[in-house]
Each structure stands twice: as C-alpha cells, then as structure tokens.
Amino acid sequence: MAGILKSVSLKSKINLAKKKFAIVVAEWNEEITESLYQGAFDALIEMGAKKSNIARKNVPGTFELTLGGLWMAEKKEIDAVICLGCVIQGDTPHFDYICQGVTYGITEVNIRTKKPVIFGVLTTLNKKQALERAGGKLGNKGEEAAVTAVKMLEF
Fold first, then answer.
1. What are the φ/ψ torsions at residue 56 (nearest 5 degrees)?
2. Could you report the per-residue pLDDT of 120-152, keeping only the tens digit for each?
3. Are strands 139-140 and 134-136 parallel, antiparallel or unpaired?
4. Which end of the chain is less packed: N or C, by CB atoms within 10 Å?
5. For residues 155 and 14, is the Cβ–Cβ distance under 8 A?
6. Long-range Cβ contacts of 91-97 (<8 Å, 24+ apart)
C-alpha cells in the first residue's frame, strides 16, 4: 500500500476487530471518491478491522456528507465515521459555500455525537490535484482518514 501506512508505524492500542466503522462516500466526483474509499477501506483492514464491521453508505454529494455522517454516528453500534468527498473549484463561489458548509457540518457532528467523525474531503483547485491526493503521487487521503479514525478511537 503506497501512502501513510508505509511511513507511519501504527500498532493500535485497541482491538480494531471489535470496532465498527462507517464510511460515508459522496457520489459526486466518483472517480476520486472511489479511490478515497478504497484507500480508507484497505487501511482499516490492514490495521486490523474486520470487513464485516465496515459499513459503506453513499450520499449524492459532498454537502450531504454532514447528514449522512450524523445518521451513521447516531447508530449505537458505530464507533467511528469516515466522511469522504471531493470538491473541485469552478468558476462560481459554489466551491466556497460547499467547502465551508461541510467543514462546519462535520465539526458539529463530532461535537454533537461525541464520536470520531473524520473529515476526508478533498478541496482542490483542479482534478489533477484531486487525483494526486486520491492514490497519486501525494498518497491517498482516504488512508489518512482511516488512520485518523483509529487514532481518535485510541484517544
């Protein structure tokens, strides 16, 4: 696996086989978000999570990650939620509103549910930058989101 797991030795202090994760994935910019999902899923498995304890839920776009993340975090059996999306800047201020809204929303879900709800959203200027961060030369931010979820569970 190319990415953070090769550069960080993560020996979990907890038994991840007993932890349940939800990965909420935005369908918009699917080429990017599918790669982020695969990075997160593979990282969780490599760190000791069981496939049967990882639930995937799709939402239409990045803005909907907040509500999807909340619904999953409210489930008693879910220990951590990873929200994955990608917003690529265009010619209108839409980018700014979506990025600000989802950032604030996921922060609120963390505070409200008192569970780790991880912000795995790429906010890039173009598709090339997104691809570089979704398994390209800059690694896979999905992997990083999975590592963050585990570290927060250990906290």
1. -110, 135
2. 999 999 999 999 999 999 999 999 999 999 999
3. antiparallel
4. C
5. no
6. 95/123
